[in-house]
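Running this now, will post back.
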Amino acid sequence: MRFLAIKIKNIHTLLALFVLTALLVLTVVTLSLTTVKQNKPVSNQADIYRTRSDLLIAAMDFVGVCSAYDAVNVWSNAVVMRSGAMQYSVMTKQLKNTYQKQLENTFPNWVTGVSSPWISGYKITGIDKTDNLTIIYSLLFSAKTSTGPAGEYTAVLTVKKEGNFYQISNIYTDEGLYIYTGFVP
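Update: finished.
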């Protein structure tokens, strides 16, 4: 039984046929996989992302930073990067609960801040060690636009050692910084 007879005159023709066959197989496989993915109900996809989100949030109770300075640095960089998740990661359990509820209303995707003006940086302006487990940091955040500086805002973070990690237990900021943190004290 003869299906296809082609006279191959040179190696280039053979190589071209091989590449075309491989592309055809890849196209068929890709289309079939895409069809399978598209046939999943939307609710299942939403459930997958909700489950993943819940697991990641729960995991935050088991990870942390090992110095008060690192807690402040992570939180402050998260404000600059517009990441509510990073801010959340260095908070005490009690503050996480409050923050999460606020984010669900103000920034449900956990992307905080606005595109302009944006927070361009920060510096620590003061450190007050109240006891062996608590340190209060004062910070100054700078905002800017494409045309230049757009103001400065202060924040005061109380950092406590709980278990093996240092976590932020209180946040006080200028009202102008609320939009950048997603948090109203």
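The longest strand covers residues 148-162. More later if anyone needs it.
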